[in-house]
Amino acid sequence: MNTLNICPFCNEPAKDVIGQIVSIEEEGQAWKWVTSRKISFCNLQLRDLRGRQLNIALYGDLGRNFDAEKVIKQGQEVSIIAVFTGMLVQLYKGIGFTVRSTTASKYYLDLDILEVQELRASLADQHKPIERLPCQLQNPVNLTELVKSRRTIEQLKSLNPDELHRGTIFLCIVTLKGINCTKDWWYEGCFHCEWPISWDGSKPFCIKGCPNNALPVLLYKLDAVMEDTTGAMNIMIYGKQAEMLVGHSADKLVGEITGEQISTIISSNQSRALVVGPHRGGFVVAGVPNDDDACMLAVQLKMEAGGGGEFS
Hints:
Elements: E1 16-25, E2 28-32, E3 37-47, E4 53-59, H1 60-64, H2 68-74, E5 81-85, E6 88-92, E7 96-100, E8 106-109, H3 114-122, E9 131-133, H4 143-148, H5 153-157, E10 170-179, E11 186-189, E12 197-200, E13 203-206, E14 217-228, E15 231-238, H6 239-246, H7 250-253, H8 259-266, E16 272-279, E17 282-287, H9 291-305
Parallel strand pairs: 1-9, 4-7
Antiparallel strand pairs: 1-3, 1-5, 2-3, 3-4, 5-8, 6-7, 10-14, 10-16, 11-14, 12-13, 14-15, 16-17
């Protein structure tokens, strides 16, 4: 039996990831400045053992040689489990965190390993044919551009979120001051898309109309407060971004700890970088830079300010 160093879905750089292929996009082209030429890429969406979804981007020969039509055809009847190795995490405008391929990346379909067997067993009654979707243009976030998008809380408050384009992001250097403990800090989300579910008697159904063939998953919904020297404001933190800050998935903590304890966990007097964007008349955390990106952001901020970094 083959063995791999499988990493869970997260916003940290990952060596290997595993999941059920949910959808495959049509092949796209992206301009690469380093080589001054276009390279092809193929986007996929995976779902892991806990029902979370992750974007995968395969570049160059890896994406070009990925036989999407064959996989989609096979995926109409049975679930296809994929393992991707040698991958890195990157933030993309309008898409969020994506696990992308490198020159060392490889992929394997339906490997005979324990992790694949466990995932397949969990999907026994939850098969959904693989979808073919139009391509989403990949726009890697340039750290220099991200630094230039920096806004203070006072500046964010002066903006009308409803007038901002979808995918607009800003960099904020803030401290988190906990969450509103009078509101629920978690919700039941759709197994397929993570949108909230409703109940029809004893049966859950997705408000976006996803197939009613899986139990809902427990996800974070934190109504948090962030602060800098110009003021304070509320900001929503959902799903993977909240998981980055708390350190555990919501399904492991619901029923075990209180909202007050969650508030204590994310609270800090130390400034940190958050990527935020417009969301339903307010703002939402769209990205939590990992340690490597935070270090690079600190360097960029130092260069912009001509002095010392503001966070670590």
